[in-house]
């Protein structure tokens, strides 16, 4: 019975030490991670631009204009179709 109590106590102590081990980041490693994330964010570029054609009729004739969904701006002037 005494051996079981000692064994249970040792298991509790070791498990507490193992699972409560916290890793602290140094200021230098945090700075390095921040610099890496800035470089990574700046290197991301869209592979293609999403666009949509808009149409209208003026004096019975159709016109079209290209809108960039990616940039949120017109890419062309109105063109006759």
Topology:
Elements: H1 2-19, H2 27-42, E1 51-58, E2 61-68, E3 73-74, E4 79-80
Binned strand content = 15-25%
Distance between the terminal alpha carbons, to the nearest Å? 94 Å
Which regions have little confidence, pLDDT < 50, spanning 5+ residues? none
Mean pLDDT: 80
Helix-and-strand structural type: alpha+beta
* Portion of residues within helices: 40-55%
β-strand number: 4
Query: What is the chain-wise order of helices and strands?
Result: HHEEEE
DSSP helical segment count: 2
Shape: rod-shaped
Radius of gyration, in angstroms, nearest whole number = 32 Å
Largest sheet: 4 strands, antiparallel
Describe this structure in words.
This protein has 81 residues and is an alpha+beta fold. It is built from 2 helices and 4 strands, in the order H-H-E-E-E-E. The chain has helices at 2-19, 27-42; strands spanning 51-58, 61-68, 73-74, 79-80. A hairpin with a 2-residue loop joins strand 1 (51-58) and strand 2 (61-68). It is rod-shaped. The chain starts with a helix and ends with a strand. The mean pLDDT is 80.
């Amino acid at each position: 019975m005494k051996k079981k109590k000692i064994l249970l106590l040792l298991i509790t102590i070791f498990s507490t030490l193992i699972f409560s081990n916290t890793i602290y980041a140094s200021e230098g490693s945090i700075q390095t991670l921040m610099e890496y994330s800035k470089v990574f964010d700046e290197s991301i570029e869209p592979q293609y631009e999403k666009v949509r054609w808009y149409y209208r009729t003026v004096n019975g004739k159709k016109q079209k204009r290209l809108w960039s969904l990616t940039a949120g701006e017109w890419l062309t002037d109105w063109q006759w179709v």
